[in-house]
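Long-time lurker, first post.

We've been arguing in lab meeting about whether magnesium ion would sit comfortably in this protein at all. Half the group thinks yes, half thinks no, and nobody has a model to point at. So I'm putting the question to the forum: if I give you the sequence and the SMILES, can you give me back a predicted structure of the complex? Inputs are below. Any interpretation is welcome too.
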Amino acid sequence: MSDTIYALSSGALPAAIGIIRISGPAAGSALASLAGGLPPERMPVVRKLRDHKGDTLDVALVLWFPGRRTATGEDLVELHCHGGRAVVAAVLNTLAAIPGLREAKPGEFTRRAFLNGRVDLAEAEGLGDLLSAETELQRRGAMQAAGGAVSRRIDEWRSRVLALAAAVEAVIDFADEDDVAALPDDFSAKVAELAGEIRLVAARPEAERLRDGVRVVLAGPPNAGKSSLFNALLSDDAAIVTDVAGTTRDVLERPIALGGVPFILIDTAGVRDEGVEAIEAMGIERARREIAEGHIVLWLGAPADAPEGSIVIRAKADLDDSSDLGDGQAVSVVTGLGLPELIDTLIERGRGVLPPVDRIGFNRRQKQCALEAAACLDQVDTRSDLLIAAENLRLARFALDRLVGRDSTEEMLDALFGQFCIGK
Ligand SMILES: Nc1nc2c(ncn2[C@@H]2O[C@H](COP(=O)(O)OP(=O)(O)OP(=O)(O)O)[C@@H](O)[C@H]2O)c(=O)[nH]1
Ligand SMILES: [K+]
Ligand SMILES: [Mg+2]
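Top reply:
Settle the argument with this. Predicted structure of the protein with magnesium ion, as tokens:
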């Protein structure tokens, strides 16, 4: 039988309420010893919590969820204490002294929910993203996975694979009896259709992009006004601005949400070829790498030099005279000209880079499993040995099983749940 774990599951203290969760076989007896008996099931009641000497620790709202129909799939207790640091510490210390109880490791409540079949791996991954979501788009994207939309689609694919496998098995069985049997006419078309559907979802931008943010690189020649624009977009003096060409040496990154879209703004060293000493040269090298890897490049320079697909910005537009209406989006950080338009452009382009939040998408791990399943389906050839076709359908099903964690390794679970905080 597993240990009984406990942790503070609500946010940083002090707060109005501190919610302590206890999960495992000894949860009920721990609650009984703190509250002087078990309250009615699934009913919020107020109880005095006392330590083993009988001293009152707090007056708390307590909830008792016995059985398997709980968030973790095992006996679960919630103590809604006053959220003072000393109050919560006193209750946690009392729990620590109860035999069979120990503090939960990061993500351990969710891990138990997974091991007890309350959520699958795709839902647990979605939950992780939901807890770390900082923008509206991240929240909506994570809701899809956490709410089971990915899992439901995988289930549907899985039952189609099973039906195809059953058709093959039926023919193989008949062959044993020396009878004539054939696969349905549309068998191969159905296999190809399923592989195509899986690839379509796998081709969508990966969920990590939504979690990590759209990378927007500000690039261009020295003194073009990159750092000034970086600061203006952030409304912060994060980068050093001077009139000396070559001020920015290193890459500077800052996260920002614009219109609910998560971005990482990246300021870089001005790109030039001549008169460059060693440190600046290294900065330029880094700038080139960021330009190559960025999702969106804002190019503050001559349109002729602009990297492919970049947005050309005509910076310092306040200095333009009326005859000098060059190419690019005019922006001035001095007058604010063109900034709202630039932000709108970024939001629009940014949404295009991210996975669609109203449809399901995969993270990198899930995508790999999905592509494996599609590749196995490609190998299903009804003109050759049907035993091999059956085997490939079995492998396709295993790949889908791995996607939702039906067949997960300890290391995989450690890696996933280790990213969660304690108490989750
Ligand atoms: N008038 C005007 N001056 C600007 C504007 N943006 C930047 N500047 C000035 O241009 C100079 C260079 O600005 P930076 O932001 O340091 O330019 P940079 O591209 O980051 O320069 P490096 O980091 O050296 O490559 C500074 O003196 C800024 O004050 C603008 O919109 N209007
Ligand atoms: K500068
Ligand atoms: Mg700069």
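For your lab meeting: Residues 369 and 399 are 5 Å apart (CA to CA). The domain at 214-353 is CATH 3.40.50.300 (Rossmann fold). Whichever side wins, do check it experimentally.
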